[in-house]
Amino acid sequence: MKQGHQGWNSGLMIAGVVVLAIAPLIFVRGAEFEGADSKAAAVIQDINPEYQPWFKPVFEPASGEIASLLFALQAGLGAGVMGYVIGLYRGRQEQAQVQSRQQLEE
Q1: What is the pLDDT of residues 25-47, one digit of tens each?
Q2: Residue 51's closest CA among 62, 63, 60, 42?
Q3: Lowest mean per-residue pLDDT among 14-18, 76-80, 101-105
Q4: I need a surface site. Which of 10, 14, 37, 55 has the fewest CB within 10 A?
């Protein structure tokens, strides 16, 4: 990839992410955005109204805001770990390329 096109590619990627984030809010007005857990619980209750969960959560957040905070924290930590691993492997790959060039020059 040429260096001149890298800026355009980054801009297009950012624009795509913004469109993907905003499009559902525009096209699905008034919809309730709920998590998969509550939808699964509703389906289970429809199938078997007498179902009792096998266990209770170890920690129950006091409010929805705290649950959202913990979810965002988990997502941030996961993104950080993924970024670190990708950077680590990319660094190893670049180091291997440098070493192979040095061996060819000798």
Answers
A1: 888 877 777 778 788 888 999 99
A2: 42
A3: 101-105
A4: 55
pTM of the model: 0.53
For residue 75, which of 63, 87, 67, 85 has the smallest C-alpha distance? 67
DSSP 63: S
What is the DSSP secondary structure assignment for residue 1, as one 8-state letter? -
- Residue the block writes with tokens 């997502």: 75
Structure token digits, residue 89: 């492997």
Residue 7: what pLDDT? 75
Residue 64: what residue type?
G
Question: What size, in residues, is the chain?
Answer: 106
Structure tokens at 47: 């199938």
